[in-house]
């Protein structure tokens, strides 16, 4: 039994900054990515005309028309990202091993639009039960993982983690446990989040309350995760090893007065310290931190304070949301993907160590430690 | 570390009883928790029965968090957790200082909050809805509510693998203690009834009119239900050291995926999941004394489940009953309630009945559904089945601690 590190051996990503690992890597390296005009995307009004959305994304362009017409957007994004990740890895998945290959996908609340539209139909249809049974599974949170398993015939453990901003790290941790305890050999691990009027408004409310001005985003990123020791022993070079993932909850001292502005910096700093310790890494070795900062001054300040308290001013700071928007659960995977992106084309960073930090407005916190390598020459 | 993991506290918040004692008595009595829907306006729905929990009063259970700040499903989760901790007898202050966390399963999360927002938006638009409510939508809040109610600083993970989610949560919690990552875990699940799911199951043709009759010849579907189920897990050493009452030991679990169809269950895959669970738990099929069935009461599920049981256990599978006949289908909480029922059965030597059972179904294998009356018998090993949309199969195995 191994409880050690996990390796990422391939990945896929769809974000407004780029589609596919290579395009995303170029965008991250150039710091490129901007919001698009979303005013024509939906019938319902949206709070602002711009979002980091994949305005022209149509699942049939990637997966064909067969079996895709009823898919929700969140599921569609995840399925395409899973396919990209499988194409990007040297792991071969076929009928001989697909019982040992699973999926762990993170979300905030599934396809919120699908669930909300379902409720809406019960209010506005002539009879409350006149909903469309074909899209009922879309309204349930495990749709993306279930549909992806069907598409790619992955019969191993199939899990959905509802963690919001923490979901990507939770899903990685969940996968590490499965692999370490011997329940699976490999998993597609990532998060998916769709842009919709519902999400746009919820993001807008949160930004106004927190004094920020960032638009919502969407997308998915999926990583092929395997046991790091096994990958190394096979002489394969991974994109990264995830050396540690530590999560926890900042519990406010007084629940009666607790709001989203509770200072979580000490709890998050403790989380980063634990992650470094478990990874066997000194703070001075860390070259970059991909943070969850989203332009809300107070909570960004807490996160920043936690990072600086442990790592000082040395590491490069990747603020992924600046060019991919507030994409909720997808943002966590974008943070990981941004670090992989920087490694992908830059051999000078081979073997360097980076950190991911995140937090939710409810007090969940997390930190991960990665060691990355470039693609290309061995 | 490979620590043995035991269950020392139970917290059911259900339509047939709140707290372990009430729940156990109701299981033995074969009580039905099904009543006409009151939590939403069911006018216009041809079927209007559900397993709601009208007696649920979060204010009387929750000590730290304020119910007003949390959706109903989070309230269920946190209340069930509080009851499980009280039942375990552990000092709450000691617990909050320990390495402790929670894993909570769900199908809909706080979708009834989203449903309310959606309803409100029809008159005031999304721009005009209650912004505090909008903050309550993320499903991660279920496990977060548990941790914040109990002051736990360890991992709080919400697993939204639909109707087998509690078994996923139990399995993950078991691993956390087994490997030594954490010392105490609350595991279980929670869900609330709502219009959208009631409508969805009706349109799938999977909703029974008045009663859920699993394995019966004339079964016609599920009754939607709700509630919160929580179990308190710790290492055997910890339980022994503090002189705790041990209900049962968690022996292991199995997970797999049909990867075949989003809603139709697959007997081959389910049989494989049973074998996987047995292997991981280190037991043989013939050691299982009781199966707490997924047993939704739909024609498809019960036929597939019985077929898979015969495939794995042979012509005479152990008694296999469905407590969904009493509770309805509590979705993400369902396998949590089944685990609580099985653990009580192990500790108190009984198995709960399948109520509403009238006629065996000649179309499905001959099984013993423990018809209508609970049975006094020794249960050394119990198997809890959980299946879900997406082909998310999850089976947990519990054993008598001796």
TrEMBL record, chain A:
Family: Belongs to the thiolase-like superfamily. Beta-ketoacyl-ACP synthases family.
UniProt key word Transferase: yes
Pfam families: ketoacyl-synt, Ketoacyl-synt_C
Domain Beta-ketoacyl synthase-like N-terminal, chain residue ranges per copy: 5-197
Keyword Transferase (UniProt): yes
Top-level taxon in the UniProt lineage: Bacteria
Keywords, comma-separated and alphabetical: Transferase
GO terms for MF: 3-oxoacyl-[acyl-carrier-protein] synthase activity
Residue ranges occupied by any Beta-ketoacyl synthase C-terminal domain in the UniProt entry: 251-340
Record-given protein name: Beta-ketoacyl synthase
One of the GO biological process terms: fatty acid biosynthetic process
InterPro entries in the cross-refs: Beta-ketoacyl_synthase, Ketoacyl_synth_C, Ketoacyl_synth_N, Thiolase-like
TrEMBL record, chain B:
Molecular function, one GO term: 3-oxoacyl-[acyl-carrier-protein] synthase activity
Principal location: cytoplasm
SUPFAM superfamilies: Thiolase-like
EC numbers on record: 2.3.1.41
Catalytic activity annotation: (3Z)-decenoyl-[ACP] + malonyl-[ACP] + H(+) = 3-oxo-(5Z)-dodecenoyl-[ACP] + holo-[ACP] + CO2; a fatty acyl-[ACP] + malonyl-[ACP] + H(+) = a 3-oxoacyl-[ACP] + holo-[ACP] + CO2
Domain Ketosynthase family 3 (KS3), chain residue ranges per copy: 1-400
Keyword Cytoplasm set for record: yes
Gene Ontology terms: biological process: fatty acid biosynthetic process
GO cellular component: cytosol
The entry's keywords: Acyltransferase, Cytoplasm, Fatty acid biosynthesis, Fatty acid metabolism, Lipid biosynthesis, Lipid metabolism, Transferase
Coiled-coil region list: none
Family annotation (Pfam families): ketoacyl-synt (PF00109), Ketoacyl-synt_C (PF02801)
Localisation per UniProt entry: Cytoplasm
InterPro entries: Beta-ketoacyl_synthase (IPR000794), Ketoacyl_synth_AS (IPR018201), Ketoacyl_synth_C (IPR014031), Ketoacyl_synth_N (IPR014030), PKS_Beta-ketoAc_synthase_dom (IPR020841), Thiolase-like (IPR016039)
Subunit note: Homodimer.
The family this protein is said to belong to: Belongs to the thiolase-like superfamily. Beta-ketoacyl-ACP synthases family.
Name by which UniProt lists this protein: 3-oxoacyl-[acyl-carrier-protein] synthase 1
The organism of origin for this protein: Solihabitans fulvus
